[in-house]
Amino acid sequence: MSEAIKAKIKELEAEYARTQKNKQTEGHLGLVKAKLAKLKRELLEGGTGGGGGGGGGRGFDVSKTGDTRIGFVGFPSVGKSTLLTALTGTESLAAAYEFTTLTAVPGTMTYRGAKIQMVDLPGIIEGAKDGKGRGRQVISTARTCNMLLICLDAMKSMQHKKLIERELDGFGIRLNQEPPDITFRKKEKGGLNYQEIVPQSHLTQETCVQILREYKVHSADVVLRSDITVDQFIDVVEGNRKYMPALYVMNKIDQLTIEELDIICQIPHHVVVSAHHRWNLDELMEKIWEYCNMIRIYTKPKGQIPDYNEPVILHDTSPTVEQFCNRIHRAIMEKGFKYAWVWGTSVKHQPQKCGKDHTLSDEDVVQVVKGSSL
Ligand SMILES: Nc1nc2c(ncn2[C@@H]2O[C@H](COP(=O)(O)OP(=O)(O)OP(=O)(O)O)[C@@H](O)[C@H]2O)c(=O)[nH]1
Ligand SMILES: [K+]
Ligand SMILES: [Mg+2]
Predict the structure, then answer these.
(1) pTM for the whole thing?
(2) Which of 21, 27, 33, 109 is the most exposed place for a label (fewest CB within 10 A)?
């Protein structure tokens, strides 16, 4: 069954490769891509060892603790375990042979009051997403993280970066990409309502119709608010994509010359480190904080001083009071939230009475006032 799917994928990939890319063929190519996306999903969901659904495959059984979870992904022996030990103090066996780490090893650290869980993972190899090694388990666990550290050996070919990206991409993980700004809503009837708010350089109504037909969707609202690619459109139709921030951690820089270092520094989203010598880990943490969009909000119980030791961590550049409340307890918004007193840079007056839609800033202090407490 999976052999048949793989053969069909090969056939479609060949067709895609030999078709000229121009305006006339765009619709057809879109259709080929949609067919490919569908088949690849079937392959992932149907393969051995996978739990099916939710992107296919089951991750390692590591309970999530703390505010933020960061996963280490990379080829064998790039130094993931050495890095985990250097950052968290949790001993994860490191050695000069490949596949030293065979399961997920969590470690924790506190940074600027946030409790960060770091998860060292087994090395992955090419073909991981199709079930090679523990790849699918690794990538499934990676999907549960707030952010990924793509660990690379700075001495090795940068081809490895591409290979890792392809493996993650094949599992529905989109690195350092925003979800496309479009509305896609399936309907019972009424045909396709296609609207371009922004002119499209890749997608046309015809391509859109063809792709949706492949998914047996005949009626839908499609509103395009940004200029997107055919692949991005298919992502939205497929659903279940995971958009994650990622940093490329270029390890073992102690082995490089200055000239080699200069070249590596051109890679976007990179941080150079030496896990072994603990070089540049400060910058790594600084960047992790930035990439995870971490914001600290201090809670202030009525009549008490704010709790500056245990900030509530939100992962958003502009979180609202409502998001803050939901992070503490779901029931707050449902049961009697009236307003919040807010101190800090997000407000003019100290304190200021704010509604649920008010946008908070890093290090604001918030006191929630509930109806029942009056
Ligand atoms: N020179 C140098 N060697 C390093 C550095 N970090 C790790 N190593 C070495 O690289 C080898 C592999 O390190 P590990 O931490 O086991 O690598 P890993 O990525 O966890 O490997 P697997 O678990 O097998 O996938 C070990 O011999 C480490 O001592 C570094 O910054 N510089
Ligand atoms: K190793
Ligand atoms: Mg390891």
Answers:
(1) 0.88
(2) 21
Residue 239 has a CB neighbour count (10 Å cut-off) of 8
CA dist 67 and 269 (Å) reads 23
Do residues 108 and 160 share a domain? yes
CB of 340 within 8 A of CB of 352? no
Ligand 1 and 135: CB distance under 6 A:
no
Residue 312 structural domain:
294-373
CA of 82 to the centre of ligand 2 (A): 9
Is the domain of 72 the same as that of 165? yes
Q: What CATH number corresponds to the domain at position 334?
A: 3.10.20.30
SS3 52: coil
d(CA 83, CA 123): 13
> Ligand 1 within 6 A of 100 CB?
yes
- Indicate which ligand has the atom closest to the C-alpha of 99: 1
Tally the residues of the chain: 374
> Could you count the other beta carbons within 10 Å of the beta carbon of residue 173?
23
Is residue 112 packed enough to be buried (19+ CB in 10 Å), middle (13-18) or exposed (0-12)?
Answer: middle
Per-residue pLDDT of the chain (374 residues; tens, 9 = 90+): 688 988 999 999 999 999 998 888 888 888 999 999 888 888 777 654 433 333 446 789 899 999 999 999 999 999 999 999 999 999 999 998 888 998 999 999 999 999 999 999 999 988 877 767 788 899 999 999 999 999 999 999 789 999 999 999 989 999 999 999 999 999 999 999 999 999 999 999 999 999 999 999 999 999 999 999 999 999 999 998 999 999 999 999 999 999 999 999 999 999 999 999 999 999 999 999 999 999 999 999 889 999 899 999 999 999 999 999 999 888 888 888 999 999 999 999 999 999 999 999 999 999 999 886 44
Residue 59 lies in a domain: no
Instruction: Please name which ligand lies nearest the alpha carbon of 125.
Output: 1
Residue 190 and residue 116 share a domain: no
Q: How far apart are CA 168 and CA 126, in angstroms?
A: 11
**The pair of three-digit structure tokens given for residue 19, joined into one six-digit string:** 């078709």
